[in-house]
Amino acid sequence: MLYLDNSATTPIHPEVKDAMLPYLLEEFGNPSSKYYTLAENAKYAVENSRKHIANLLGCDTDDIIFTSGSTESNNMILKGIAEYHGISENKHIITSRTEHPSVLEVCEYLHSKGFKISYLDVDQFGRIKLDELEELLQTVPTLLVSLIWGNNELGSLNPMDDIQKLCQKYKVFLHTDATQVVGKIEVSLNDLEGINFLSCSAHKFHGPKGVGVAVLRKDSLGLPIPITPLLHGGGQEKNYRSGTLAVHNIVGMGKAAEITLKNLKCNIEKLNSLENALKDILIKKFGNSIIFNNDTEQKIPGILNVQFVGINNEILVKKLAPYIAVSTGSACSSSKPSHVLQAIGLSLNEIRNTIRFSISSLLKQEDFKIFNDL
């Protein structure tokens, strides 16, 4: 079977598996324990992984807080900022209509707690409009802007450099869900000082499921920006995220980050090449009966969002299932019509004709020969 649902999750890299195994078997120590070898080895492994992830994200090592993944990181950051910093005259949060459910549903929750939420509309490719963001920042005192960096269904990249400059200008916290972009574009947070908080997950770049990070950066004085923890308990992760660390998963994420950074430029080129090859195959095979919903520029390499005119996407996905793994959209909202495609103006019929192909750099062009037999 050809796996083309890498936006949902990626296969674990063989070197990642090998790095994890000792910490599931022999090196089982708790890094919060002290002095004895098993504990010290676990602690060293965690900090070594933290360093590799910071290198991949281009931030300071002590900005990295381990979580169970992007959903927890998004909840932790949005709720934590709102509770700690949300005062009566400053309870306004700006987001967009194309965010992941773990941002949108947190915003709905915060609205029920008295916060005002503004939802930015998007263009035909799912990007926010900078003038609309600035108009809101000019007219409404704002606590936080939370905007996805790269969309998981369309691949569209928001103009994050311009967004972070606007948030700096108006002295507003900025969080970005970077789950889909890490490992597929270059990320250097030290060059983007206006990004205060970032979320990502290991399993989107060939690491294990169940581990991610919340990046909590420092303020202009070099002090940590305080937030209220989502989880209270033993004080792990500098009191931001209590709970015994899953060392094997953290080691896996660190190894995945190390491999990803080493091969990043090569993998970006490969993903673009594979995407173009797949696009050519689809055009030759289906011609005018397909429509590409996504832009060709300013996007995550390796994601194609395609309408098969007159064909129900659920039926198509089931028919393809023995041969090719694809999806109708986000794995976290697969039972509903895509809110992302609704936001860019597609009708329900067009949405029901759409599937997403998402490619991995581990694939080869010859893997696409399976399309010849369909």
TrEMBL record:
<feature type="coiled-coil region">
    <location>
        <begin position="254"/>
        <end position="281"/>
    </location>
</feature>
<dbReference type="Pfam" id="PF00266">
    <property type="entry name" value="Aminotran_5"/>
</dbReference>
<keyword id="KW-0175">Coiled coil</keyword>
<dbReference type="InterPro" id="IPR015422">
    <property type="entry name" value="PyrdxlP-dep_Trfase_small"/>
</dbReference>
<dbReference type="InterPro" id="IPR015421">
    <property type="entry name" value="PyrdxlP-dep_Trfase_major"/>
</dbReference>
<dbReference type="InterPro" id="IPR015424">
    <property type="entry name" value="PyrdxlP-dep_Trfase"/>
</dbReference>
<dbReference type="InterPro" id="IPR000192">
    <property type="entry name" value="Aminotrans_V_dom"/>
</dbReference>
<feature type="domain" description="Aminotransferase class V">
    <location>
        <begin position="3"/>
        <end position="369"/>
    </location>
</feature>
<dbReference type="InterPro" id="IPR016454">
    <property type="entry name" value="Cysteine_dSase"/>
</dbReference>
<keyword id="KW-0408">Iron</keyword>
<keyword id="KW-0479">Metal-binding</keyword>
<keyword id="KW-0411">Iron-sulfur</keyword>
<keyword id="KW-0808">Transferase</keyword>
<keyword id="KW-0663">Pyridoxal phosphate</keyword>
<comment type="similarity">
    <text>Belongs to the class-V pyridoxal-phosphate-dependent aminotransferase family. NifS/IscS subfamily.</text>
</comment>
<protein>
    <submittedName>
        <fullName>Cysteine desulfurase DndA</fullName>
    </submittedName>
</protein>
